[in-house]
Specification:
Lipoprotein; eleven-stranded mixed sheet; signal; disordered N terminus
Length: 298
């Protein structure tokens, strides 16, 4: 199978939060703190809600081999139980949903021909434009999932974008692991076997971390985040289904632990810090569901 160039996708502005959701990565030559947001979104909406019900709008775009970034129509967007189908008319793939309140929610995208997507939890403090969210096709997920040895469909998979913000100069050298809430080894493995006898819990002993190289693919020989690689920086899989906490360590920067945390470039979206995964399912055949989250360094 041939894959579309990930640098081409970057140039098209297609690599966004939703893409990654686990199996797609990209590199950026810009490693400053002004890296684009993981979802590539721009604030083209209003800064305040037009009424008592904040509205989130955006556009789902196709991410598949040879894609030109066409809008992805006919997919279901779920924002905390408020749903809409992405438009089949211009602008194709667009959606607009009144969330009804300011309660936090996990954005979900599902539909035929695509793997399901779960975004980390956020809430709206006013109307917000999420921008473009690439949705990985089954074809792309199938090909990339084949690069992840030992993936267990009964466990969860989470793509992580490690984003540096001032004064943190870059994200290079960061390491990602599951936070089990203990001082022991979380049982993650950046090597070949995907298992670790030091795991503190049978449910986490086979958790695997893979870091993405500058070529946009996961590489089992890498042991940390590569400078400027954002989308995602890493994937952590074989996670116990449910809410998870991810810990990021960096040689000179610290992980943001203050929530709610505003998206740096998408006004009126604030992250709660919560992430969750579901059983990945049949991702080897391009189906199932995968999750995505951003972790900010300062």
């Amino acid at each position: 199978m041939s894959f579309i160039s990930f640098r081409t996708l970057t140039a098209l502005g297609l690599l966004s939060a939703g893409l990654g959701v686990a199996f797609v990565g990209c590199s950026s030559d810009d490693t400053s703190s002004n890296n684009p947001p993981p979802d590539g979104g721009k604030d083209t909406g209003s800064d305040t809600s037009t009424g008592g019900s904040p509205i989130q709008k955006g556009q789902l775009v196709e991410l598949l081999p040879g894609s030109s970034g066409d809008g992805a129509s006919g997919l279901t967007v779920d924002l905390g139980g408020k749903t809409a189908s992405s438009s089949t008319t211009a602008p194709k793939g667009s959606y607009s949903i009144s969330v009804g309140n300011s309660n936090p929610f996990f954005m979900r995208v599902t539909g035929p021909g695509h793997a399901g997507l779960i975004e980390q939890e956020w809430f709206l403090s006013g109307d917000a434009d999420r921008g473009k969210t690439p949705v990985p096709s089954s074809t792309l997920v199938q090909g990339l999932a084949g690069l992840l040895d030992g993936i267990d469909g009964t466990k969860g998979a989470l793509g992580v974008s490690v984003v540096n913000l001032p004064p943190c100069a870059d994200n290079g050298g960061a390491t990602v692991e599951l936070d089990t809430g203990t001082s022991g080894d979380a049982g993650t493995d950046a090597g070949d076997s995907g298992s670790d006898a030091g795991g503190t819990d049978a449910g986490t002993s086979n958790v695997i971390v893979r870091y993405f190289g500058t070529n946009g693919f996961p590489d089992k020989n890498l042991t940390s985040v590569q400078k400027g690689v954002l989308l995602p920086s890493a994937i952590i899989y074989n996670l116990p289904p449910g809410e998870v906490t991810i810990k990021v360590k960096h040689p000179s920067c610290t992980q943001n632990a203050t929530f709610p945390f505003p998206d740096p470039l998408v006004p009126n979206i604030k992250y709660t810090g919560k992430m969750k995964v579901e059983a990945a399912g049949d991702v080897k055949n391009g189906n199932g569901i995968i999750s995505f989250a951003r972790i900010f360094l300062k």
